[in-house]
Amino acid sequence: MNFIINLLISALVVFGLANIMPGVSINGYGTAIIVALVIGLLNAFIRPILSILSLPITILTLGLFSFVITAVIILLASAIMGDSFHVDGFWYALLFGVVLGIVNSVVGSFVTSD
């Protein structure tokens, strides 16, 4: 049940950010649910591989390279979703990923199970 709540909240944040940010477009809330699911799956399976491969540069940049990995995940989600979810470039993906992560962390702290 907690997974579904987190997914719907993430979809709401994705939909809101896509309507606010100029470089991000989305077709509707149903697409936002799919995008949230795709981003979650990419974070679960692809992000650890990218983190391990980029460990030396992440250490060298004191962890700042993880923002680049976040932007790559968002760009991959945009490529998978095609025209229904589109991010214009790297900088929009970076901003979108950072804001999405911050909002999900804040909202996730309120929606915790005891």
Automatic annotation (TrEMBL):
Keywords: Membrane, Transmembrane, Transmembrane helix. Pfam families: Phage_holin_4_2. It comes from the Bacteria. InterPro entries: Phage_holin_4_2. The chain crosses the membrane at residues 28-46, 53-77, 89-111. PANTHER family: SLR0284 PROTEIN. This is Phage holin family protein.
